Amino acid sequence: xxxxxxxxxxxxxxxxxxxxxxxxxxxxxxxxxxxxxxxxxxxxxxxxxxxxxxxxxxxxxxxxxxxxxxxxxxxxxxx
Length: 79
Prior knowledge:
The chain is mainly beta. It has strands at 2-3, 8-9, 12-16, 20-25, 34-35, 50-54, 59-64, 72-78.
């Protein structure tokens, strides 16, 4: 996953349980990856920084950048 031009790409991603997803910030501004349910909670990431998370249960995780809440993404985790 990339964070570029104030957007998560792809905006929606489907993975299997046990998959690890890594977000890489390619913007000049810091960003975060945070879900309302608390599943995802990255630190602030500067340019070139990464955040990885391994999904251990099925479901849909919607997330935003807490610094720029207009940035939205979704990870769908299948069994």
